[in-house]
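Annex B. Sample input.
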Amino acid sequence: MKKFAKLIAAATAVVMSLACAVSAGTYDDVVSGIKFTELSSFTVPQTEMRGFGVDPNGKYLYGGLLQNGPTVYQFNTADGKQTGTSYTFKTESGAYIKAIGADDRGYVYMGIANAANNGAVYFAICEENGLNEVSNVKIDIAGKVGVNGSFARKIGDKYYMYLVTNYDTDRIYRYDVTDVKNPVLDTTFGNNAGYTDLAALGINDANNVAVADDGSIFLATKMAGGSKGDTFVKLDSNAKAITNKNDATECYGAAIIGEYVATSSYKGAKIMVFNQSDLSLVKEYTYSDANAVLCNLGMGGDKLYVGDQNSKLVVSTAIAIPEPVVETPVTDSAATSDAGLAVAALMLAAGACFVVARKKH
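Annex B, continued. Sample output.
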């Protein structure tokens, strides 16, 4: 046993000593080496493409206009050109669409504000092929209100759509959209049986939203200053509390990149990448076009796509997100010998080192 104790002590000391030298995340080097270039510029009825969404399968991009009617245009990711397919919300001709999300089943989710920005908002669900409307829902909200964010995510065996409202009423809603023909408000979510009033969390304006696999919610928000945003926040999966936050000047977009999360800036042409765990900053990029107005961003396949309000689309180089590593458990036979036990101790110590490293960003 003395020999075994010495083996454990030695193994632990060696591995824990490495923790001081390790300060990188699982693949910080990957998300720190991204390059961004213009994919395309295009002509639409007017230049303010405030809404932008990305097909997670990497086939299509979507743009919605701030003015000139509630129409969303579809683009190919291969060349950034319009496919010739578009969707127009017909319930209110003066409405506009600046919140767009998509899921991996081939559905697109559009948050829609009415022309008066008053009394109600809508969302519509369309098929990506042809952008045919499957359903739409009206949400009555008293006073001045608009829509800034839409995101779809599968959690467990259900698909959810998250919808963010703004102006006088800042809320985040969650709908069960497993059956896209019959969206249902998830009354187990939030602090008001289906939604959270974000003002109660100190948020004055909420912009785009992204949701991680574990249900954690990331929001570009304004809590103090800035024309659009100033703080990127992480909410718990039920949107009842802010669990982390970080300064992000003029933050407006939100996107999940593996175990990381990113925001884009409405001014300053910035793209910032954070660790999901604690929102520590990993990398800040400045896009080459200083006049770019980056309205939102999202992962499509292995690339990050960014919408520029000035009728332009931006694309990253391929982002090689590693596959999760599955640890092989120590067998009983290995653990019965001193050497096997020492190896087990080494693995435990290495795990401790990993935790320490992940906390040091």
